[in-house]
Amino acid sequence: MVPAMTSSSVVRAGLWALVCCVWALPSFAGPPPARRPVVVELFTSQGCSSCVPADALLTRLTRRSDVLPLSLPVTYWDMLGWKDTLASDANTRRQKAYAATMGHGAVYTPQMIVDGITDVVGSREPQVLSAIDARARDADAGDVPVFLRETQNELQIGIGGAERSAAPATVWMFHIKNAATVAIGGGENGGRTMTYRNVVGDLRAVGQWKGEPLAIDLPRSEMEGLPHDSVAVVVQHGGFGHIVGAAVLAHPEFAPL
Fold first, then answer.
1. CATH number of residue 197's parent domain
2. What are the CA-CA distances from residue 102 to residues 90, 217, 248 (Å)?
3. Which regions of 153-192 does DSSP assign to beta strands (E)?
4. Chain centroid to CA 49: how far?
């Protein structure tokens, strides 16, 4: 685990230009969704040798239906001899925002953040599993249902209302690549060929939830060509706090497979 750059400020994500229209949440026919998955975000890098066991743990977590594991490669290891081919500035900004919210003086890899509130060294499997189990036990308290449905022209997001007064929350959309294999040519992992799972290729804020039922329609034209084969929507207090809702849609038709 290697400390990295000091976080000096939170970079707030701007709202994505989107088209919203009113449709009733009951139009999502069928039973309510099962208990939402616990969201696990791994901040990692191809240039970090300590990240290899954390990447392997995240791969194992993808086999669990009760967990939504996300790999977010960051950029600040690029200066040490290998430019991460999957990293993005958006992922780095998100990790720095978490550091500021949690009162940490620096960011590091591998770091796992569980449901937006628990910070765990990503290679420490017993602590990671314990944090997931703790959140699974508490997940019903204050959670809201999230529905995803695709039509011919758009992706529809439906978010239920809170039973009591709720703090405002950001609605995040993650575009996820199921698997990416990389031959690493330099840095601490030079010579390795790694396969990364559930890689976040794009993330953006698509709305604000204020405790009332919310419907968001995202036109397909806004999402075509993005690097993903599934999408996840996460409802998170303050943008980088407690996660209270999550859902994933695998293989939407607009994904380039």
1. 3.40.30.10
2. 18, 32, 26
3. 154-159, 169-183
4. 23
* Cβ neighbours for 191, distance < 8 A, ≥ 6 positions apart: 184
Peptide bond into 110 cis (omega under 30): yes
Q: SS3 helix, strand, coil % of the chain, rounded to 5? A: 20, 40, 40
Q: Report yes or no on 255 lying in a domain.
A: no
* Phi, psi (rounded to 5 degrees) for 126: -60, -40
Confidence band of 7 (pLDDT split at 50, 70, 90): very low
Residue 154 lies inside a defined structural domain of this protein:
yes
Single pTM value for the model = 0.86
User: What pairing do the DSSP bridges indicate for beta strands 154-159 and 169-183?
Assistant: unpaired
158 vs 22 pLDDT, higher one: 158
| Angstrom distance (rounded) from CA 81 to CA 92 | 18
